[in-house]
Amino acid sequence: MKLETIRFKKPDEGYAPSDDSWLLAHAIESENVRGKKCLDMGCGSGIQTAALLIGGAERVHAIDLHPSAIATTSKMIETYFPNTHAQCTRGDLFEGIKGKFDVIVFNPPYVPSDELKWMEVDGGEKGREVINRFMSQFPKHLGEKGICLLLASSLNGIENIQAALHKRHFKTRVIGSLKLSFEALHVLKIEWDG
To answer: How far apart (Å, rounded) are the C-alpha atoms in residues 101 and 142?
Structure first.
């Protein structure tokens, strides 16, 4: 099955697949996720969950704050991947998540905003409020040889994000980019350093 053949639905409260979603999904396709235990943070429409399952992930745990995103992703799994080990949980970032994962993927709300009005896109000051919370929490859930794929905008200060991750003993590199009219989107591959 190809990702482009799936008809993704926009959750009532959540994000319809857009340029950033597809950029991250194609980055997942470039990684070896076969047989891996994976976490799709902020699953939305389920596009990243689908990319992980198509790539052969052994297990996928999808989490989102919005009940409609959980319902939408669950329906997508039921329709296209009925015989897989995938589950959906409602939660705020790692709330209720136990254990470690081989792969964690996250397309966070990253648009700089004065307030978090639209939770699926508003990222707070410099668009990094949710990203900073994520960066403080994901290390205890990433396996020793695990990878994290994080989408961020040039408006978020990619160098600052990378510097913060290096201080937490991670190495990072950009594995996908997309230039838009007023920003560039980047997928950071994050691994333990050492």
So the answer is: 5
* Domain layout of the chain by residue ranges: 37-192
Q: Would you give per-residue pLDDT tens digits along the chain (194 residues)?
A: 899 999 999 888 767 788 999 999 999 999 999 999 999 999 999 999 999 999 999 999 999 988 999 999 999 999 999 999 999 999 999 998 999 999 999 998 765 445 544 444 444 455 578 889 999 999 999 999 999 999 998 888 889 999 999 999 999 999 999 998 888 999 999 999 97
Q: How far apart are CA 72 and CA 69, in angstroms?
A: 5
* Domain range 37-192, CATH architecture: 3-Layer(aba) Sandwich (3.40)
Task: Give Dmax (Cα) for the chain.
Answer: 43
pTM over 0.70: yes
